[in-house]
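Collaborator request, handled under Task 6.
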Amino acid sequence: MTILNLPFELQIGLRYTRAKRRGAERNRFISFISAISMAGIALGVAALIIVLSVMNGFQKEVRDRMLSVLSHIEVFGVGAPMQDWQAVAQQAQQNPKVIGAAPYVGAQAMLMRGDEVRGALIRGVDPQFEPKVSEIDRQMTAGHLSDLKPGEFGIVLGGELARSLGVIPGQKVTLIAPQGNVTPAGVIPRLKQFTLVGVFESGHYEYDSSLALIELSDAEKMFRQDGVTGIRLKTSDMQQAPQIAMELSRTLTGDLYLRDWSRQNRNWFAAVQVEKRMMFIILTLIVAVAAFNLVSTLVMTVTEKRADIAILRTLGASPRSIMKIFVVQGALIGLVGTALGVSFGCLIAWNIDVIVPAIEHVLHMQFLPRDIYFISSLPSDPHLSDIVAIGAISVVLSLLATLYPSWRASQVKPAEALRYE
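Structure tokens returned to the collaborator:
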């Protein structure tokens, strides 16, 4: 289709847009304001895409590190230990989306070495099955998970917990269980010395500073449990863990309770989502300010083109046609600005792992020092849904900004506009 076959409103709107860019001397200021409006939209859209991508990246990084220690789904007995965990694990793995299962004993205790005492979350694990549901064995900085042997009372600590206790592999640490021994003198806490056989670093401070692993049968003896606390499951898609947990709740038999990873950290994920929404709203205001700069640009254009508008009206153009001409002009600025912003934002978001190190190298500084932040690089995870939403909002705001100036153009009276021409 050639430009001659287009509606005349669109042809004139495109001509006005092109003309003001080449422009005569009297149009240069309007062209400058139009360029500023377009650049403002582009920068606002790009900033919104980059910031949301970085926030998604941080969320993904923390979530992945968290799930390297946690399981996707936990199944445990209500009010009593699970006696036949193998049968429950076999039932769970009949679901094709469940790709791993491992038993565990969970308890809280105190760890003591010398004068140092720390509270810890004790997890009894089977070294044979645990690698199927977590990545702790690959995160070991000293020793191996297989060094936990039944009856030898070995223990694996998170790196921060080991440093706070001042213990290194091969040394002893005392575990104080809350289940005490009843004696004539009263209840005495149960104490047992464990040998540190390994240290892991998950990159998540909460777990590195509080989690301790011991062998499954040793945990049952230490905490006087006749059976395991439950089983931990790994799914093929962690995003579908809540739906898979609902499916398992209908297929597993027995008095069981299921909990997926999103429920275990509900407050954290809710806070991240609220923060992301607020950041989206705040940065959208930048796009809105840039989009509504179109108002001043189009008002100045309408003032300049009053004679042209009057001539078009005398030739039979309706007020609606005049309005469409300036809507086309403003919408084109908004569309070009949005397209530039989306292109620039996506370019930065998808290459931030290269751009940021290059800037750090030039400035001889590190934005996220490794000794302060547990994430030392700037992650980015652009989502197509975010990019589409940002582009759509920018275009809609640009179109809204064209309505008032276009309406004013449609109200120009030909006789008054041509009086002094």
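The cover message to the collaborator said: "The beta strands are 73-77, 98-113, 116-125, 140-142, 154-158, 172-183, 186-200, 211-215, 230-235, 256-260. The chain is about 50% helix and 20% strand. Please let us know whether this matches your experimental observations."
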